[in-house]
Amino acid sequence: MNVKEKLDSVGHGFCPQKWRWLALYLHSGHKHSCHHPPPMHIALDEISKDPAALHNTSHEKQQRKLMLEGGRPDECSYCWSIEDINKVSDRFMKNAVGPNDLFDLDEEIEILRNTPWGENVNPYNMEVSFSNACNFKCGYCCPSFSSLWEDEIKQHGNYDLQYNQYGLSDKIYSEKEYNPYLEAFWKWWPNLKNDLKVFRITGGEPLMTANTFKLLDMLKDDGNPELFLQINTNLGVTNRKVEDFCARVQELIEKKHVKNIRVFTSLECTGKQAEYIRRGLNYNLFLQNINTVLETIPTAYVSFMTTYNVLTVPYFKDFLQLIVELRVKWGERILIDIPHLKEPPHWTMNILPKKFGRYIDSDVEYMRQNGFQDFEIRKMERIREYFYNDTHNVTEEYRLNARKDFAKFFPEYDRRSNSNLADTFPEFTEFLKWCKEL
């Protein structure tokens, strides 16, 4: 029986990630189980009664109930759109090995099938953002996850777009003020710590918050030898700070207070194109910091999370060539994932004319010829399939509005950043002009 058949034996929308995976944004009081659904707000009255409600919210329990009864939650549409074109979704891929061998799927299915839907559970795989403090303001990011974006919007105002990605709508707790969500997390931590198998620190930029280093100190005093530590970092802080972080982690590994670490970073272009998308990036410093991680922590892995977006399409091969070069030096310690961006709409690849698909076709062939793993090639093939056959989610009205926003956003983005889209991405000169005419 394959993974799909096993999951569908419980229900056609059943996914253990709703129980065992948690992303927690303590700076805004939001969470989701699986990174594809939109984050949901956590009610303060729930965590005041039980800090475990940071994960086990009343909303989450209702979604679990729906899954156990054979339903497909609307918030999980990312996977349903892929499954509806008969392709392999992340519902299968994330549970194929547990993920990362965190659990035996057959055993977990039986546990969750027989666990009352309203009962609290602890996640095995957890991602936490302590703060939105960040030294980058990537173009497709927003104030909730970047303090520099927050500062920009306060200074210049919101962008005049149909899709409001950049407004200041949610309460964001600074590190200098009392945060009830952060308090609940530290209360929950003693009960949670020994059940965790993967703990991932994210942001903002986690190397800019004291809570990251507080957590490392707590693990130094009371570790979990089975815990696989992970961090999402833009690797754009000073090399000295990266060295300090790596030295602390290496000590935890040597003393068996954690099992190992994987450093997740983000890139989808190189050079000036990468610096345009990721405002704040110094590309050469980024490469230096990658080498520092791999040299200082001999067991560490560096995993690239590519945010495959509209500007990526003609330049993704440059990124793939970088991966080949890094693998010559570091081998299998260099990993990649290739999810496609789905919001904001004016940053999605699906607004491009189909002639841009030739770049994607070429990238698939390049990966086949240059030693990429089969599962990596399949992810790129999934990008191609979604680009050419996107009618399930991308209506013509959606595409039209997104193209209009593209024409409004990038000139203003350039004005605020002292940059120039056409100079940096000449392939988009004609497309930008066309979008403006709309």
Secondary-structure map with pairings?
Layout: H1 3-8, H2 17-20, E1 21-25, E2 30-32, E3 40-41, H3 44-49, H4 58-68, H5 77-83, H6 90-96, H7 105-113, E4 125-129, E5 137-138, H8 147-156, H9 180-192, E6 198-202, H10 210-221, E7 228-232, H11 239-254, E8 260-266, H12 271-277, E9 278-279, H13 283-296, E10 301-305, H14 316-330, E11 334-337, H15 357-369, H16 374-388, H17 396-417, H18 421-424, H19 429-437
Provide an overview of this structure:
Helix 11 runs parallel beside helix 13 and helix 15 (357-369) runs antiparallel to helix 16. The protein is built from 19 helices and eleven strands. The relative contact order is 0.09. Helix content is 46%, strand content 10%. The model has no long low-confidence stretch (mean pLDDT 93). With 438 residues, the protein is α/β, with parallel strands linked by helices. It has helices at 3-8, 17-20, 44-49, 58-68, 77-83, 90-96, 105-113, 147-156, 180-192, 210-221, 239-254, 271-277, 283-296, 316-330, 357-369, 374-388, 396-417, 421-424, 429-437, and strands at residues 21-25, 30-32, 40-41, 125-129, 137-138, 198-202, 228-232, 260-266, 278-279, 301-305, 334-337. The strands form two sheets. The chain has a nine-stranded mixed beta sheet. A two-stranded antiparallel sheet has the order 5-9.
